[in-house]
Amino acid sequence: MGICDGRTVIITGAGGGLGRAYALAFGAEGANVVVNDIRREAAEAVSEAIRAAGGKAIANDDDITKLATAQRIIDAAVEAFGEVHVLVNNAGICRDRMFVSLSEEDWDEVMRVHLRGHFCLANLLGKRWRDASKAGAAVDARIINTSSGAGLQGSVGQSNYAAAKGGIASLTLVQAAELARYGVTANALAPAARTGMTEGVFGEMMKAPKDGFDAFDPANVAPLVVWLGSAESRHVTGQMFEAAGGKISIADGWRTGPEQDKGARWEPAELGAAIGKLLAQAQPAQKVYGT
């Protein structure tokens, strides 16, 4: 028996890295897994690994960034397994450059894959779950989004990626607020792991050790994602989890800090001193990635 027995999960970008680790872990916990990846052979390989271990899985290579093709992913899941209970939005790309060196294409492509890729499947499934709830069905569904430390703290050379990941964090808050009434939770995570996207930037730091605990193994993040997809997590929504090695934490987002209320409109000349006092009372800013 696993904590996800009978639950069907769609995982995007599941042909390698974190997505592969999630897919294998969900399969081991009894879930029906839809392994989505634009690389068909990679998706097939992960699906076969799940089935070889006694689990249930299908491969899919449809485009997550268009509603029409995203619907085909859902249709395939429903045809194979009857229903969808969990969506793990994991797929992503990088087009790293300093901000003033970014091209329009660099910006648009990262937004397309990350933000639109997080929108399409969640939008379609959200409608499906809402309609089912309104029809009287008991819905216990999950959206699990992928942000990043870059999205939470900024990252030098990754303004497009950081902006997209910050957008995903905000999207998660809205999804959690809007979909709770239909039995749907929405959470996000900022994982730190060795993947194809991180090896080029953090290659030496994330290199696997010759012995001992491999802190950057993607499999370290998978248990949290599986738990968030399980029925046990129904009371948790609107949270941003950070996961690295054996550490998990909940990130605090923007919140109202120290304030000064003049009780009247400020004059521009007064604001330097007022803001100086606010900055002195504020928590120190976290270090921006890459500095």
Automatic annotation (TrEMBL):
Natural source organism: Ralstonia insidiosa
Keywords: Oxidoreductase
Domain of life: Bacteria
Species classification: Bacteria, Pseudomonadati, Pseudomonadota, Betaproteobacteria, Burkholderiales
SUPFAM superfamilies with a match to the protein in the record: NAD(P)-binding Rossmann-fold domains
GO terms of molecular function: oxidoreductase activity
Residues of the Ketoreductase domain: 7-192
Family to which this protein belongs: Belongs to the short-chain dehydrogenases/reductases (SDR) family.
Protein's recorded name: Short-chain dehydrogenase
